[in-house]
């Protein structure tokens, strides 16, 4: 029996699964500890149920995922609005340095994936779905990139990317604390930290005001995203037209143009009394992320993982080793070779293999054992929350253009 769901029924089920995921997360400590997103919990649960129903020939679902692309574009456009050049400048050289370091990791994650594609017997495009797309990008970037790879004819790209992103959330959270702990104890960094002069940072950049919800600002934020999307798709089409003159490889995602416009609009707003409601835009982006993630996860074809299990394990094990080596020898050394750098290295494991909240959780665990690091809690949230998704998308697009 095949159950067909139209556009409205599909989004309705996605919301139900999102709410179920939130409830399960509130009751299960494991999901809270590793910051597993609610739509991932609910979506994966339904995907497993669908797998069982399909294998037992009881039922199969077909969905109309038209709105998935719409909500996905909302999310990525909000990333553009969040990438404030003004804040990047105010953050200082440590923020810029860490952004460059995190971006280099994205490149290396993709190089590693492509290099191992042949030995494990998978296509380079599929191997890239274990690179920076799910690792640094997490489920959000996976849900934006993987469907493009799947549409290009690479079967299993979405399932691999989402599964890899979930693996990354757990593994990045597990390895960050022990790695930083080893660095700190080996180099006696706590005592050295106590003798250092207190770091001066402008923490007001990260402060959020508790404001009463303003309906007009919510509307303005949503409208700003829609305008950027409406105009931005023409920019994407133009750029793809120019690329098509030189190559027939993978085109730029449709949300590239809206992201670029988001950056432009934010830069103009920052120079003119912040006329855009940045918090409301971020909320709209989070709404888009939750809805398109729920739709993406519930439509997973888990039966495609059967033949990919061994290659995936090898690729993900390699990414874990890369993250550990990079954090230990690159992030720690280049960020100052001191206590703050060790805490950032532990945090980098969290968001370099999962998401910014996981990185922050790693740093909280480290600082609870030793001492607080003002620099770490200033630098990592800015890079992880505002900029890395933007640079990562462009890095992924280049790799897909070459290898997909």
Describe this protein's structure.
The protein is mostly helical. Helix content is 75%, strand content 2%. The protein has 17 helices and two strands. It has helices at 7-27, 29-33, 38-55, 66-82, 85-91, 93-120, 124-127, 138-151, 157-186, 189-195, 215-244, 256-271, 278-298, 309-334, 339-352, 356-369, 374-403, and strands at residues 2-5, 60-63. The protein has a two-stranded parallel ribbon with strand order 1-2. Helix 6 (93-120) crosses helix 17. The two termini are 35 Å apart. The model has no long low-confidence stretch (mean pLDDT 89).
Work out the helicity level.
over 70%
Count of helix runs: 17
Radius of gyration: 21 Å
The order of strands across the largest sheet is 1-2
Quick check: average pLDDT? 89
Could you say which structural class the secondary elements and strand pairing correspond to?
mainly alpha
Basic shape: globular
Largest sheet report: 2 strands, parallel
Alpha-carbon distance between the termini? 35 Å
Which helices and strands appear, and what pairs or packs with what?
Layout: E1 2-5, H1 7-27, H2 29-33, H3 38-55, E2 60-63, H4 66-82, H5 85-91, H6 93-120, H7 124-127, H8 138-151, H9 157-186, H10 189-195, H11 215-244, H12 256-271, H13 278-298, H14 309-334, H15 339-352, H16 356-369, H17 374-403
Parallel strand pairs: 1-2
